[in-house]
Write a structure and sequence with these properties.
Number of strands: 5
Strand content: 5-15%
Strand order of the largest sheet: 2-3-1-4-5
Number of domains: 1
Distance between the termini: 6 Å
Number of helices: 7
Order of helices and strands: EHEHEHHEHHEH
CATH topology: Rossmann fold
Largest sheet: 5 strands, parallel
Shape: globular
CATH superfamily: P-loop containing nucleotide triphosphate hydrolases
CATH class: Alpha Beta
Helix content: 55-70%
Structural class: alpha/beta
């Protein structure tokens, strides 16, 4: 049995770092795993939020169809740095793109590309904006606060929420405990 784990959080939360560490850990334990980062394709610079949403959704469709679905069919644990949730947070809530249009397009993509019995999980690396800003300051502090609030509202009760302001070892160990249990359930 396979599983798909999505890593979410504001910029600077540590998604790429923790996902890469987890991939190395799983492979070292003999678990077949793969790691992907969204978007899989480069987005043209200076795109509008609507164009971004359409582009990310198209890239997601290709990634799931050509990479993730085959991996899941081979019973791999698939780790994905970012997901459709990021599209809702950044393009809809921050960029003003129609939420229902975005939900419907992503529902079509995921329903047509995810194998039926695959379990999926979201791990939100929750980081105070001040901490994320110090780590990776591509966005201003006020924007990071808004993004974090939206992530917490969207994912409260629907994700594993990890305090990612802790030391990396502590964060990784918390994620590892969750994923070890998921792997035990799926294998």
């Amino acid at each position: 049995m396979s599983a798909c784990l999505f890593f979410e959080g504001i910029d600077g939360a540590g998604k790429s770092t923790v996902a890469a560490m987890l991939y190395d850990y799983l492979v070292s334990k003999g678990v077949q795993a793969s790691l992907y980062k969204e978007p899989y394709h480069e987005i043209p610079p200076d795109s509008s939020p609507l164009t971004q949403m359409l582009f990310y959704t198209a890239s997601r469709s290709w990634l799931f169809e050509k990479r993730i679905r085959p991996d899941l069919e081979q019973n791999k644990i698939v780790l994905v740095d970012r997901s459709y949730v990021s599209t809702f947070v950044y393009q809809c809530m921050l960029g003003g793109v129609d939420y229902f249009l975005t939900v419907e397009l992503n529902r079509v993509v995921l329903c047509n590309t995810l194998p039926e019995k695959v379990k999926s999980y979201i791990i939100l690396l929750d980081t105070p904006p001040e901490v994320a800003y110090k780590r990776k300051s591509e966005q201003d502090l006020e924007t990071l606060k808004k993004l974090r609030d939206v992530y917490l509202k969207l994912l409260s009760g629907n994700a594993f929420i990890i305090n990612a302001s802790n030391d990396l070892d502590i964060v990784f160990n918390e994620v590892k405990m969750i994923v070890d249990e998921i792997v035990r359930e799926t294998l």
